[in-house]
């Protein structure tokens, strides 16, 4: 008997170590040492061992060698459980049917395995049959069987049946409550999950790490910040604050609720961080537009030997895209290649998006072409890149390619293609695409699509038509819609409509200084200085300060920031000399400063000096001083580039034979040979 127990222990070891060699050697030893027919319990262990090690054929062969009258529910359950564990769900159902034909009644271990197989196969019909058998066998009121039936109905879409099973359960254990809450979250009903958590808590039921993770997911999905903080209190009270899974859930929750400070507090308090901890914190920074800290934390993760998996890499690439950090993005791209995850569709899509948002169209297209596996996100990333970089013809061609390739567009696709049409002035094409959303693709236009069409009409000078569309919209116009109309009214000198748009903007976002400045500049451009001054005095009275315009340029991993009239840089002498040289060359080429939007009623020479020392011009002069000839100059600005700087950059690109890429708060501008890729001016 001792020898038999030793052999059983070896079979268990083979399962725990996932060693088929040990299992087969033990089986051979059993055959060699047993000179009589194998006892049933030992046969059951062999079936269990082979099925758990994913040697399903050997397990079935072993079962066939057992005389039918010696096969028990334990034998069949071992085979079925192993099949489910290794993803052979159809085989599990087939073996369950064979067991039923052998007149073996399933028990409280067999039914949960069979329900899980139905769940994974998405087969509610078979699930209903199993449910009927469980009722007939008197097993349905077992807490584990009932929980499995509930989970099966939930995941196969039979919500009403799931609720009936849940309500009829005489006893609900923690696994049942966790399944109920988890399925509520998956159904997109976070309030239902939270209510279940409250009910569980009031009933005095125990809470586990899984419970906290699920309810935190519910709170993050619904942005229940206050409620989630209360759950955090329970986490501490129950002693789960150092449970890494719960802590990771808290980081994710605070990040999605836009409280990145508390997310970092939780992260710093974790003693045993895992890869998910680092991923969650990087993602929290990225989701809250804090790309710089996301990149810094990623570098720290690499120093701590965190494996660069697809999730953390795609998150930090998105962070690089947000801050136009091309060099950092290239470094992360290299990391992804080294880790052999650059072929991952999410990493690849993030790289396409990053190169597009950094103004590097060549690498963006190369990355897209090199991807063997693309999804809709990939196509949308390239399409959005074309739109932002002013390549409207290429965007329209890509949209046609998507249609030929049976890639079904979504609402994001149409935002990008309509934005491309807007920037290209392709009004007819844009309106046709807008109408096709509902008629051809069954996609109801959202406010973002209307914003694109309003912008498209307004840019083309059809400001009255744009205003009529705003009045007919099935939504309340947003800040971006009125902002597009106001910006167009400034360019096309429609003061009347501009005043209407500005008044609407002041109601929707009274603290945004940019709208007041645009209105003031519009009056100034028309020579209506008294009205311009009234707008600026109103700003002062209500305490609205104009945001300082800043431009920055990255040189060898250092960021150099400039403001208008900035003379604080250590190389200011060279910068001023370059500005003076450029001014002389530009005037010789026909440049005339546009001072119509200068903010003050000054003498012409002073007005010219005002526009000449804008932050982007100073950043460009610095770039020309330090970046070797032939290399592109990349500048980022926190506000929209002004008309005069836009014109000046066209001249400078031709005079210096340099490619100049400017990313302002609205879009990209690619200046080459006296031209810009956009149609903004």
From TrEMBL:
It comes from the Eukaryota. GO terms for biological process: RNA modification. Keywords: Repeat. The keyword Cell cycle does not apply. PPR repeats lie at residues 72-106, 274-308, 344-374, 375-409. Pfam families: DYW_deaminase, E_motif, PPR, PPR_2. The keyword Cytoplasm does not apply. Residues 590-681 form the DYW domain. Belongs to the PPR family. PCMP-H subfamily. PANTHER family: PENTATRICOPEPTIDE REPEAT-CONTAINING PROTEIN. This is DYW domain-containing protein.
